[in-house]
Design brief:
Chain lengths: 469, 641
């Protein structure tokens, strides 16, 4: 049973937290915070112990060195989100339902783990649903706020729509191949029109999760409405997991029609990066801003997928890893400021450096990393993506991506300019962040800096992704 | 095989010191930074000594009796492709170990000295933080295992030198000097980078051991004629040398060094005498086998540039009045001599005498030139002026400075048995075997060196008595002790049987003193000293007369042969007017216009498509479905048909 240990551990701690929650009186719900973080930390650490790859349930579930690494990456991200959300959870309006946050988030994480390990489209679909539905509840967590409730409804509606389309696609795959197992489907993919149709529907479903243009419209509204920590969860963990399984399925199941899907991706990449950037420029609300920035970043990730090689796979994982740290850093700062002052627009950040220099520095590092400025990790992430793309001969695509990097630099710098150069009559007053927030931000900064300098991370991923391609 | 992996600490400690002093220095009293920095460097110095001892005396040698050349520590930093990667590590061979000794010793002395010299200065901790950063960069440069690591540290050295020259950032001249140094060396580094790229393109490796080994790809590839009758390898080595010439202030890239004297004097001693400026010499020595076997033309250029710089700078040094500038030109001249030594050298055994001599001179020069600069610092500290006209008769007021300064002057003038005598003699011996003309040029340089050094010495310590506002007094102990230690080095360093340790092929050989060269060299040196004594021991009008008699030549030398003016003319008049202005016009009207247009279009587009994001869920679903259908249309019908 060691093969499934990531999922089992998560299920165990979910159950523990559920039981504890039942016995805690309403006034003392806050007591659950520390155990929840410690348990998650323990699971994260245990996850890194070397495990044995293997297959369960006749191939429905498969665990490889690569999938373990991916789950570990997700665990680390969730742990940081747990740490970052303490300050917000301690607020009065949330104090009675703190454990709901943990339980719902852990359930989605379990879903993602099953999704990554799936060897069968049914298993994949179950994981996907488990990973999606609780997020809608999370988005509506602050249901007394109109926007939060609206975010929940929008998310559940659009995800239902996308699931429907995805299922339709899967049924057509079953119809043309007669099986749901990845390994059996792969040789039967011929590129017949029905299969192309099936692939596009499957793609649309995934594109919703990764928020690719034109399946992205829900993103900004949901990010803006949901609590910051849920938005950050959506933007890094949920998106990261979807990218991972999407890449795996493209590379293992749809290899035979690689020419087709790389053309689809080609179009989508250009659309996604450009539209994401153009919208990001216009945003005043930082959560919307980060939403569009994360759409553009998703386009960059696809650039790695389209490279169709071991290097491509490696760069995708590396980029997502870096992106998790950078984006969580940015969301962390936005979150703590929003909690303490309720301010969420770029103009509110005018003169932030004078009053809260440390937070401004973290934000600057995170945004620089997202923009891809050396020597931060984000630079290497983009650099590897571009080299991988150029190696496959996608020169025009890389050029368009490069131009978009410059555009993105413009809007990231807008925020940095506001913090460091602009003056304000009423800057955000100085406040002391709590230790959890600090720890979370320190972890992000450490990730941004350290991953950039240690190439061994890249090599580790490279070696593990060998079997896949 | 002894484990040398601890040498990584020689690199890690200084950067750690830099971070600690830089971040925490302001929390404590300034002196704490000084003590932390100095004691940290003391540990690094001990580590270097232990390394040198173990390397030269304990470590077994290769089968043919040569010293080993190996990576003590290496880590892959960036993987560019499967074949091409960038490493960071520590390479040990005789020259890198020798440089470790030179850098840490001088740096330690400068640290100690600075505690006294910089006392009470604003930015005391910043100064020590920057010294640590510089030590880190310089050590990283010399132990580089590959040319790319060397380049990275090479640039770091440039940055830290820039910060140190501009240490008094409120002083306009210091800021201008730091900018000048940075720009000139950056310009030269461009050549270095081109050279590296060509070299690695041709050979497919950055690694020094592979590049300079017996089966080096540099010996076989890139040999065909490529451009202007020279091979690719030769051109790449010429470009690499351009970088070296920039850092080592060789003519015509020397113009930054005299101005760099605006920095604090300890900085001049560390950077502009003993360590950074010899980086160019070290670079050529590091790639020496390639120069000798694959790019002899480039080596000839090294020889000519070195010889010309040495005489050129020596002449200017005779006419300057700012004592630090005299020392700066003297440094250019001495480094020219080292370059000359490399340029005339062959490979292996006695053929490689020039190489050995050049490294030997680098070693001894570090001691006496650092001593001269630190001595000059003590003098400036005492009389608050840089100009020798304001000095005179100081030998009673500053006894220790006087004694040590005299030792250094004798050493650089090549008086036996002091350090400079031995190393200079070897260079001259090597030169005489190659070119009689250049041999005599270097002989004249020796005479001029002795002359201007003693001109300096007599004008400062003897000559006319000056009226000082306050009686000059000897510097504090922290400043005089380093002087005495370095004086000991200047006295004794020449006695080291250098050819037993550092040679071109790492095989020890026995070198003899060539009396036929040593005697005339000493005589020329003594003549220089006597002439200087005749001119400057007592206040006379002889110097003025001679200066006038030489007419326009001495005027030209006084104005440093108008090289600075020439650069200004080229940059301001020609480049700015005829190239920059039209380019600026094009940039402002065409390029900016196009960019503004693009930005306008981008903004407009994002305005127009804003409506898509309406917040209406029905519309989102509509777009979703139509997007999927559009893709289906595009690919099912177009692609499958």
């Amino acid at each position: 049973m060691l093969i499934m240990r990531h999922e089992l551990l998560l299920i165990v701690i979910t159950v523990i937290l559920l039981v504890v929650e039942i016995f805690l009186p309403n006034t003392r719900k806050r007591k659950i915070i520390l155990p929840a973080i410690l348990l998650m930390a323990a699971v994260t650490v245990i996850g890194f112990f070397p495990g044995t790859p293997g297959i369960l349930f006749g191939g429905m579930y498969q665990s490889t060195q690569l999938s373990m690494l991916l789950k570990n990456i997700l665990n680390v991200g969730v742990l940081i989100i747990f740490i970052q959300s303490v300050d917000w959870l301690k607020q009065d309006q949330n104090k009675e339902k703190i454990s709901e946050f943990y339980l719902l988030m852990l359930s989605t994480l379990i879903g993602m783990n099953y999704m990554i390990s799936s060897g069968n489209f049914l298993m994949f679909y179950l994981g996907l649903e488990l990973a999606t539905i609780p997020i809608a509840a999370l988005a509506a967590y602050e249901r007394f706020k109109e926007k939060s409730a609206e975010a929940g409804v929008k998310l559940i509606f659009i995800s239902a729509l996308s699931s429907g389309i995805l299922l339709y696609g899967l049924s057509m795959i079953y119809g043309t191949t007669g099986t749901m197992y990845f390994a059996d489907v792969a040789p039967l993919i011929t590129g017949a029109p029905l299969q192309v149709l099936a692939f596009i529907f499957f793609f649309a479903g995934m594109a919703f999760k990764i928020s690719l243009v034109p399946f992205h419209l829900w993103t900004a509204d949901v990010y803006e409405g949901s609590p910051v920590n849920v938005a950050s969860y959506l933007s890094v963990i949920s998106k990261g997991a979807a990218v991972f399984i999407f890449t795996i399925i493209l590379y293992t199941v749809f290899t035979k029609i690689a020419v087709l899907w790389s053309e689809v991706l080609y179009v989508i990449i250009i659309l996604t990066i450009t539209v994401g950037n153009l919208f990001a420029m216009r945003q005043q609300n930082l959560k919307r801003f980060l939403a569009f920035s994360s759409i553009a970043q998703a386009g960059f990730i696809l650039l790695g997928i389209i490279s169709q090689s071991q290097v491509g796979m490696t760069t995708v994982i590396y980029f997502v890893l870096v992106y998790i740290f950078s984006n969580l850093g940015a969301f962390g700062v936005v979150g703590i400021i929003s909690n303490r002052t309720g301010k969420e627009t770029i103009n509110d950040y005018d003169g932030l450096y004078r009053t809260n220099p440390k937070l401004s520095l973290v934000m600057m590092l995170a945004l620089f990393s997202l923009a891809g400025i050396p020597p931060l990790a984000g630079f290497f992430g983009k650099f590897f993506l571009f080299t991988a793309g150029a190696k496959q001969g996608y020169y025009i695509l890389v050029l368009i991506a490069l131009i978009n990097t410059i555009i993105s630099l413009y809007y990231y710098l807008l925020v940095i300019k506001a913090m460091f150069l602009n003056n304000s009559d009423q800057p955000i007053a100085y406040f002391k962040s709590d230790n959890y927030t600090r720890l979370g931000l320190i972890l992000c900064v450490a990730g941004i800096v350290v991953i950039g300098f240690t190439s061994s991370v890249y090599e580790l991923i490279y070696n593990l992704s060998f079997g896949l391609y | 095989m002894i484990d040398f992996s601890y040498t990584a600490w020689i690199l890690l400690l200084p950067i750690f010191l830099f971070i600690v002093i830089g971040l925490l220095g302001n929390r404590f009293k300034p002196i704490v930074s000084g003590i932390v920095g100095t004691s940290g460097l003391f540990i690094i110095w001990l580590l270097s000594l232990v390394t040198a001892y173990k390397y030269f005396f304990v470590l077994e040698k290769a089968a043919d009796g040569s010293f080993l050349k190996f990576m003590a520590f290496n880590m892959r930093w960036l993987n560019l492709t499967d074949k091409l990667h960038i490493d960071m590590g520590v390479l040990l061979d005789p020259i890198s170990v020798m440089m470790l000794i030179v850098i840490t010793t001088v740096s330690l002395m400068v640290h100690l000295y600075s505690i006294g010299y910089m006392h009470g200065e604003k930015g005391f901790s910043r100064f020590f933080a920057l010294l640590s950063l510089f030590s880190f960069s310089m050590l990283g440069l010399v132990v580089a295992t590959n040319i790319f690591q060397m380049y990275v540290f090479w640039e770091l050295v440039g940055v830290s030198s820039y910060l140190l020259i501009g240490f008094y950032y409120t002083k306009d001249s210091a800021v201008a000097a730091s900018k000048k140094a940075f720009i000139v060396t950056r310009f030269a580094d461009l050549g270095f980078l081109i050279g590296i790229l060509m070299l690695s393109y041709v050979t497919g490796t950055f690694d020094f051991i592979t590049l300079t080994g017996p089966d080096s790809p540099a010996l076989t590839s890139g040999q065909g004629v490529w451009f202007l009758g020279l091979s690719t390898m030769t051109w790449s080595m010429i470009f690499v040398f351009m970088g070296g010439a920039g850092k080592s202030a060789m003519f015509p890239l020397h113009i930054w060094l005299p101005d760099a004297m605006e920095g604090p004097t300890p900085v001049s001693a560390l950077i502009h005498a003993a360590t950074m400026v010899v980086a160019g010499v070290y670079l050529v020595a590091r790639l020496f086998p390639i120069y000798v076997f694959s790019a002899p033309v480039a080596l000839d250029i090294v020889m000519w540039v070195g010889a010309f710089s040495s005489i050129f700078a020596a002449i200017i040094a005779c006419t300057q009045y700012d004592i630090k500038r005299v020392l700066a030109y003297s440094t250019i001249s001495q480094i020219g001599l080292m370059m000359f030594g490399l340029g005339v050298s062959g490979y292996g055994g006695h053929e490689g005498l020039g190489y050995m001599a050049s490294m030997f001179h680098l070693f001894t020069h570090a001691f006496f030139k650092a001593l001269l600069f630190l001595g000059a610092g003590a003098i400036i500290h005492a009389v608050h002026s840089n100009y020798m006209n304001d000095m005179g008769g100081l030998h009673k007021n500053l006894p220790i400075t006087h004694a040590t300064f005299l030792i250094a002057c004798l050493a650089i003038a090549g008086v036996p048995p002091l350090a400079g005598f031995f190393s200079k003699d070897e260079i001259l011996a090597a030169g005489s075997e190659r070119s009689l003309l250049l041999y005599w040029v270097e002989m004249i340089v020796s005479g001029l060196t002795a002359f201007y050094m003693f001109r300096l010495y007599f004008s400062i310590f003897w000559g006319k008595k000056q009226e000082y506002h306050q009686t000059p007094h000897e510097a504090p102990k922290t400043m005089t002790i380093p002087l005495m230690i370095l004086a000991l080095g200047a006295l004794l360093a020449g006695l080291i049987p250098f050819s037993n340790f550092v040679t071109s092929d790492r095989l020890p050989f026995v070198s003899h003193l060539d009396m036929g060269i040593a005697i005339p060299a000493v005589l020329v040196g003594l003549t220089g000293i006597v002439v200087a004594a005749f001119f400057y021991l007592k206040e006379t009008d002889i110097p003025d007369k001679v200066f006038k008699a030489l007419g326009s030549f001495s005027q030209a030398a006084f104005h440093k042969f108008y090289i600075d003016e020439l650069y200004l003319f080229i940059t301001k008049k020609i480049i700015f007017n005829y190239i920059s202005r039209p380019v600026a016009w094009f940039d402002r009207h065409i390029v900016d216009g196009a960019m503004n247009g693009l930005a306008y279009i981008t903004n407009e587009t994002s305005d127009r498509i804003k409506k898509l994001q309406s917040g209406q869920l029905q519309q989102y679903a509509l777009v979703f479905i139509s997007g999927a259908l559009l893709l289906v249309l595009l690919f099912v019908y177009l692609w499958t048909s």
